[in-house]
Amino acid sequence: MVDNNHSNQMSKRNNTKNETMAAKKHKKKSATKKKAKEETHELDKANEKLHLELTRHKRVEETLEHKENLLQMIIHATGEAMISIGNDGLITLFNPAAEEMFGYKKEDMLGQPLDRLMPEQYRHHHSQYLQSYFVTGKPDGIIGSTVELPALRSDGHIFQIEMSLSAGSLGDKQFVIAVARDITERKQTEICQDELLKKVDNINKELKDFVSIVSHDLKAPLRGIKTLANWILSDCSDKLGDQANEQMNLLLERVERMYSLIEGTLQYSRTGRSQEKQVQVELHKFVPEIINMVVPPENITVTIENELPVIECEETHIMQLFQNLLSNAIKYMDKPQGWIKVGVVEQDGFWKFSVADNGPGIEKKHFEKIFKIFQALPTSPNFEGTGVGLTVAKKIVELYEGRIWIESKVGEGSTFFFTLPKQKMEAKK
Fold it and tell me: Is the dihedral of CA 373, 374, 375, 379 positive or negative?
């Protein structure tokens, strides 16, 4: 009986031990499976990350390839000649615009020195600059700037180009990109302009000489004629008939008119020719002095309607401008009681001046004609104008980038307006 109990106990112990070992084995197996699962998960994550990284690299490569293709398309499509020079001094890129400009095919120029595109006398000088850049890595001379120089076509024709050289690097490789433009037409235009300017200078010199000739050679005989006519009238008027005396007086009037025409021509030719120092002119003080200078008759009242500004200009110009407009209004006045009003307003960055009168007025069809030289209108029986005063006024206003015009009604009077740019004309504070 005892033996049976002992056997049962031993059997139970063995079973318990087996169960414990099985449990440990199961636990170990579960731990191994869990670890394997975790490692598999980590591996999956690593694979996914690697896949994403490979995908990103692929996209970067595709983007770079796309950009390179796009850059090549731009280089080939651009209308400007583009040439790339490597650090060995040889051409690595020669786009279609360069082929058209220089007359060479790309295949003929790749691996050739840039000097081949230049006349022989300029090659050494240009090559030195390129070598200096590739040795020092520092832009020097023409690198990073735009220069004009002669270039050589495949047929030997020399023409002018404008070349911009930009330096760059890719890794340890340096290169220079040259952008060339054919400026032959521009240079020809510049030559034509220089020739025209020389011709204009010569014409101006001739006109200046002509002014001197007019001043001396025409005015002197007129003075002689006037002196002789006055002598005849003074000493022989009683021996001459009424008709002869009338003719002599008419002769003197024509001499005076001719003298005035010459003076007007000289005044017009000198306007804008001589350069005076610009000064601050207080118009509220200066214009009253001009009014006193033109000596208006007692039957004409001249008033200044509002405060005139202080401007910076050539004093002679502003004096001639107001003097001619005021004199014009006085000479042609046909009313027993006349008035002239001077005013100014500020408008759109300009000083807008006005000189108004109640004189005879001018028909609209003559508004442009009166500003042309020698185009005076015979509106006054007592005065015959030279047709120069308003022309001089117009020339002065246009020198200061302003404009002049007239508003008028026949029988009621006229108003002359002129503008001067406020920014350029006002006195500096």
Answer: positive
